[in-house]
Amino acid sequence: MAKPDHLQFFIDPSRCIGCQSCVQACTECDTHRGDSMIHVEYVARGLSTQTVPVVCMHCDQPTCAEVCPADAIKRTGDGVVQSARKPRCIACGNCVVACPFGVPELKLERQIMMKCDMCYDRTSVGKKPMCATVCPSQALFFGTREQIETLRPRSTPTNRFRFGRQTITTGVFVMVPKDGERAPFLDVTAAMELEPEVRASPPIRRIPGLELLSDPFAEIEV
Amino acid sequence: MSSEIDPRIDSPGREGLTGTASGNVYGPVVEREQITQPPDGTPDSAQPAWRRDFPIDWPQDQYVARRDFARFLVLTSLAFTVGQYWIALEQWWRQRRGQLPLRRLVALRDLQPGQVFTFSYPGEKDPCFLVRQRDGTLLAYGQKCTHLSCAVIPDPGQGVIRCPCHEGLFDLGSGRPIAGPPPRPLPRVKVDVRGGVVYATGIEERTS
After folding, report:
1. In chain A, which residues have their Cβ closer than 8 Å to the Cβ of B23?
2. What is the pLDDT of residues B108-147, one digit of tens each?
3. B67, pLDDT greater than 90
4. CATH 2.102.10.10 region(s) of chain B?
5. Which of A60, A123, A160, A179 has the most Cβ atoms closer than 10 angstroms to its Cβ?
6. Is pTM beyond 0.80 here?
7. Which candidate from B18, B23, B59 shows the least CB-CB separation from A1?
8. B43 CB contacts (<8 Å, ≥6 apart)?
9. ω into residue B38 within 30 of 0, thus cis?
10. pLDDT score at A207
């Protein structure tokens, strides 16, 4: 079995409310109980409560697999990049460093890399990934393209990203606003160089003498 | 198409998308052979050989070509053949290396029936013993137990060789283990009587 072609994964970061339901649902999965393969990241923690769910984007040219010295990361014919093969993975952590989305996680105590595989046990039989099943705001959506176009008339899915000089086409789509001129790809590096105030909405009102309103740990958070 | 879909989560026809349907509600899925493109975008023929040897795509990784399998068979059987010739060659070398030296052990008149004579053969660190049985036959074995190299003690009266360390028991007539942990027979020392003197002429290592 393989993931049906007409079902695709759509991430709508603007709908994420940071409830960590996906993290909990992923943690309860029997294939990797106790470890969540999805993580919810803060965009600019000191200035905004906006969060982003991060799942594996299942790149067409998986950087993690390209850098793997042990030939452990494989991609099935339906475009799903699988977790590291246990007999091959040497837990070197190359993929963790290389992935531009920061998806793979090194499990040092088990000497293996584990990553989101789009719940292959579920999607390969036509079910939704667990995180998309539980997401209350449908920031994680698994379905057909027609459905997402009907459900999100003001957004359009994109799957091309630019990190520095690397352009990546992914199997997972991210919803971006439809208005304005559409670039051929999302320039992530340029977006990260923007001032956080531009991205965060609405900005926190600064009170003179009370700078501690901003998160003192925002700089060191990973 | 988009206007036909009812976006509500529980509308009819959407059951498969709510995480409850089995896989067979969809049509068969085509397994593609290769979808990953190399980073530089050039065709497969322009790629280095290691990229074909270590493909990222699962179907390619699992695929074993008929030619690869034939190559594996040929090389493996070739290795076996070479190994057989190597064993024969080793045997030939071992025989060519020459016979062990002839060593005078003891005059036959100094060795009464039932007596034991100890000596070292062929080297200083290879203790052996010689037994003259009551019927006059001469038996000589290496003294190192084949279990853990303890010094074995012959008992001509009972017709056995005992190892005191772990109660190993060998048959005196053949040197084969009959009880206890020793796995192999004791090496037999070939003896020859020439002019009333016993000589050691060689060693016969046995595995069973």
Report:
1. 1, 124-127
2. 888 888 889 999 988 888 899 999 988 888 999 999 999 9
3. yes
4. 103-204
5. A123
6. no
7. B23
8. none
9. no
10. 58
Is the Cβ pair B36, A142 closer than 8 Å? no
Confidence (pLDDT) at A115 = 94
| Rounded Cα gap, residues B100 and A96, in angstroms | 65
- pLDDT score of B3: 47
Could you tell me the residue ranges of all domains in chain A?
Answer: 8-199
b/e burial code for range A24-46 (CB count within 10 A of at least 16 → b): ebbbebeebeeebbbbbbbebbb
Average pLDDT rounded to a whole number, residues B48-62: 85
Q: Which of A131, A146, A165, A166 to probe the B interface (max B CBs under 10 A)?
A: A146
Q: Decide yes or no: CATH 3.30.70.20 for domain A8-199.
A: yes
ipTM here: 0.72
Looking at the domain B103-204, which fold is it?
Answer: Rieske Iron-sulfur Protein (2.102.10)
Size of interface A-B (CB pairs under 8 A): 91
Q: Is B8 on the interface with A (CB under 8 A)?
A: no
Burial of A104 (0-12, 13-18, 19+ CB in 10 A): buried
